[in-house]
Amino acid sequence: MTRLAAFQRVVSQYSDIADFLLVYIEEAHPSDGWVSSDAPYQIPKHRCLEDRLRAAQLMLTEVPGSNVVVDNMDNSSNAAYGAYFERLYIVRDETVVYQGGRGPEGYRISELRNWLDIHS
């Protein structure tokens, strides 16, 4: 959630040329697991879809007006896109045209912005 402000700025800047979607996946640092000391929320490991939906609601409060969907409990979106913990993608005409690195180290909002600048 710490990178959502930068993501929200990109959404605002490029909303006229792109649709943006956040996919909430399993919690990276659950409060009953490997806890991050700088986590803004204490979210336990999701035991059911309702847990995940509640956690996604917290994320939605950080990025109001954004489109947020939730991965299923089988984590099929996470597995398909290798998103664990966070990752940026651009999909055009059902084809992945940009795949950012895996977060947190490979998550670079500046790369996404550069791609959008070049291809818009």
TrEMBL record:
Pfam families from the UniProt entry: T4_deiodinase
UniProt-recorded Gene Ontology molecular function terms: thyroxine 5'-deiodinase activity
Membrane-spanning intervals of the chain: none
UniProt KW keywords: Oxidoreductase, Selenocysteine, Thyroid hormones biosynthesis
Organism domain of life: Eukaryota
One of the GO biological process terms: thyroid hormone metabolic process
DNA repair keyword on record: no
Gene3D superfamilies (UniProt xref): Glutaredoxin
Cited InterPro entries: Iodothyronine_deiodinase
PANTHER family (alphabetical): IODOTHYRONINE DEIODINASE (PTHR11781), THYROXINE 5-DEIODINASE (PTHR11781:SF4)
Family note: Belongs to the iodothyronine deiodinase family.
Function in brief: Responsible for the deiodination of T4 (3,5,3',5'-tetraiodothyronine).
The protein, known as: Iodothyronine deiodinase
